[in-house]
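Thread title: Can someone regenerate the structure for this chain?

I was given the following input by a collaborator and told the matching structure tokens would be attached. They weren't. Posting the sequence so someone can regenerate them.
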Amino acid sequence: MILRTAATTAALAILLAVLGAFTGPQWDPVPVTEHLAPATSDTTIGGQPAGGADPVGTYEVRQSGVTVRLDGTTVHGVVREPVGAEGERPGVVFVHGAGTGNATGAFVDVATELASAGVVTLVPDKRLDTYTTRHRDYEQMALDYEHSVDLLRARPGVDAGRVGLYAESEGTWIAPVMAADDPGIGFVVLVSAPVVPPRQQAAFAVDSYLRNTDVPHGVFRAIPRAVGMAIPGGGFEYADFDVEPYLERLTQPVLVVYGTADPSMPIEQGANQVIDAAASGGNGAVTVRYYGGANHGIKVDDELAPGFSRDVSAWVSSLPESGTAPPQVAGAQPAQQFVAGPVPVPRWFGNGDLVVGLVVAGGVLVVLGPLVRLAGIVATRVDRTREGRVRGLAPGFGRPLLGLGLGALVTTVGLVVYLLSVARLALDYEKDAWVVQGGWLAVRLLGLATLVAAALLLNRAAEIRTARRAGATHPRHVVGGDRVVPVRIAQGATAWIMVWCVVAGSVVLLVTLAYWGVYQLGI
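Best answer:
Regenerated them for you:
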């Protein structure tokens, strides 16, 4: 009995492992083999005028609120100006990333320090009435930010021909659209730029976060299956937005900035792609700087990286000379591990609504079966002697059925909880072996226990069928002392409904678990 159960369990595990490997793409990112080499570790910007650019802290900063009129609404903005600066000064409009939106709380440090070096800065609110998690239109957002550019150009003391953009993270998909469509924009600063489409960047970031968290290798299979599918509920059209055509149209000088401790961005690939895209359009004015130990916001220990504000303000104030001044690439040595590339599309589970629907349907079936059976038991008690039949499951069949249904449900819930826990650790840059390694082991053991129950169920069903062919009867299935009922898996409609609901629902959940890697065996 034990050997038979073990053999059946192993066969089921292998079947699910093959099925899981076949139903979706694997994850095998390409390593970066040729690394970008900075010419020097000194990030200082060259090409400054004879008198030098005004250093950070030269001027006191005056801050004032403004209203930016957009099409159909208005947003608040904060202008910071150098007090006592002579002549018309360069200006910078800040373009938000995904994590910022409020003018009073975003870019405070860098906007203030640039203003203290003689650059007029404007941080507008992000327009949020057209911006949601599911729906974002970067080209329309570019038109909205263009109103801030116009406002700053018209401000007294600002050189309208020297107004440029400072974009961070998600904003670096927007700023190239603005600059390509408005050649009058003076320059573009791209900070922590993904460059690749959002879907590719998301897969790259997830891979990097998971590696930092030390998750088991098997968990990586979920990356293309989650990121590559159509998101449940629709939307997310912007996931495949390609900024490359806009980068190729840029005629302005471009400053590309990364922190070497930013695991979410392809920091070498991004710089190379900006250089190549600009060069393809005849623009050689691209400057790249890397700041050692700096994170996504170019901060080290919650402070702007040393030299960052100095370099940006000097580059802006010294244009056009600084745009082509050597060295083109300088700073700390970056170390991008893998290439951010196209994300494979799942073969059978590419529709997120289908994935969610299957899980819900499987769970509903597993729960519905016992409820129907319970209703049948209540009805039987009302009319217990109807035709004298005894209804229910064959001996030895109920417990494996319970184990199968309950195990499939618990394993599915455990997998969801595990993935959410790992996501939290990854986003917080934390490690916890008990959660990461222990949690994955626990989920897989639950899945294995469910297969043991399935094996017991299959073997018991086979025994019952064999016994029935031999004419065996159940001793309790006696009517009037002279009538017997052959051994069956189930007696009565509600009992059969329960069996088929639990089995069907469990199969759906087991296939889903196999798809997400619970039963993989290195296949």
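The chain has two domains: 2-24+346-515, 60-197+241-331.
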